[in-house]
Amino acid sequence: MNNFWVILVLLAFSTTVTCRKFGFDSMQNITVSQFACLANEGYSFFIARIYRSKGIVDDVGLENIVRASEAGFHEIHGYFFPCLKIECRQSAAQQIDEAFTALEENGLEIDKLWLDIQVENGSWGTDKKHNQAFIKELIDEAEHGIDKVGIYTQNDSWKNIVGIDWNYANNKYLWYPRFNKTPEELTSAYTPFGGWKKPKLHQFDQNVKSKCDVKINRSWDIDPQEF
After folding, report:
1. Does a structural domain hold residue 221?
2. Which helix (H) or strand (E) holds 61?
3. In this structure, is the dihedral angle defined by the CA atoms of residues 194, 137, 151 and 154, taken in order, positive or negative?
4. Which interval of the chain is the signal sequence (predicted)?
């Protein structure tokens, strides 16, 4: 009987691990063979950068979407760096439109779009009301082009950019960076903010040189049944 329960526990653990979905993002120009190699390494989704903080479409990201698809990736997301610098004269909506126009003109589709909201961009001002309005415009315009829109951010960035309790995006999924090298549920390592009770994706490692000779940031889907 004891052996039976041990086997049952091991099977349950094995099932949990098997159900985990791992993915990656990268700004590197990746070949089809490298994408195929990464798929063989267990990655099931790819997140391409489609818009840069310079206020331009990311052509490398678009090419990567093509190659990821050719390599057999069926789940491809995009992430979007907004531009708030003085030289970027486009509104939030215009920037989103540029990204979706580029996708459409190249015959490309993505499953989800993540808006990258972090202080590391260096272009967010101190006027939180202005930042809130800009992000709201990003979200509203993005939802005209795609059903599934999420936010990439963490506590400090959200606090400094829009205020820790601003919750306009709390019905969007959260992609949360915490580089602890290990995928985890974040039950004790995550403090709710912005109305998000928990993240959807956990980015747990960055700038990893994979066996496929590609530098990647690694993420995992905390609850693949939910999205």
Report:
1. no
2. helix 59-70
3. negative
4. 1-19
Range of the domain at 96: 25-176
Among residues 227, 223, 185, the alpha carbon closest in space to that of 204 is found at 185
User: Which comes out higher in pLDDT, residue 180 or 103?
Assistant: 103
Stretch (H or E) spanning 75: strand 75-80
What does the block give as tokens for 46?
């790819």
Whether residue 212 lies inside any domain: the answer is no
pLDDT (tens digit per residue) in 138-153: 999 999 999 999 999 9
The bridge status of strand 112-116 relative to strand 75-80 is parallel
The CA distance from 66 to 32, in Å, is: 9
Q: What 3 state SS string does 182-200 have?
A: CCCCCCCCCCCECCECCCC
Categorize the per-residue pLDDT at 211 as very low, low, confident or very high, splitting at 50, 70 and 90: very high
DSSP 122: S
Count of domains observed in the chain: 1
Tell which residue, 183, 181, 124, 133, has the closest CA to residue 157.
Answer: 124
Report if residue 125 sits inside a domain: yes
What does pTM read for this prediction?
A: 0.89
Q: Which tens digits make up the pLDDT trace of 12-62?
A: 333 344 467 999 999 999 999 999 999 999 999 999 999 999 999 999 999
